[in-house]
Amino acid sequence: MSIALPYSQLAAHYDEFVGLAQFRQVRRIFDHCVRAHGLRFSRAADFGCGTGLLAQYLASHWRALVYA
Q: Residues 40, 63: contact at Cβ < 8 Å?
């Protein structure tokens, strides 16, 4: 049995119960820090990225190369 199958079944529930709320909070704090300190970056790493919500946000909104 591959790891992908059980994880993919869990992913939708993870985002519903934990991931989306956590992502919104981290995104709000991250965006505040970027504005407050004038941060710029072209690459980022997202360790322990769960389903990849923050990694997707960084890649699409900030046009960054993201390692997740």
A: no
> Residues 17-29: what's their mean pLDDT?
91
What single letter denotes the amino acid at residue 34?
V
Q: What is the DSSP string of 38-65?
A: T---SEEE-TT-TTSHHHHHHHHHS--E
Residue 48: what pLDDT?
Answer: 85
- Predicted TM-score of the model (pTM): 0.77
* Distance between CA atoms of residues 25 and 4, nearest Å: 27
Assess whether pLDDT exceeds 60 at residue 51: yes
The C-alpha angle 45, 51, 52, rounded to 5 degrees, equals: 30
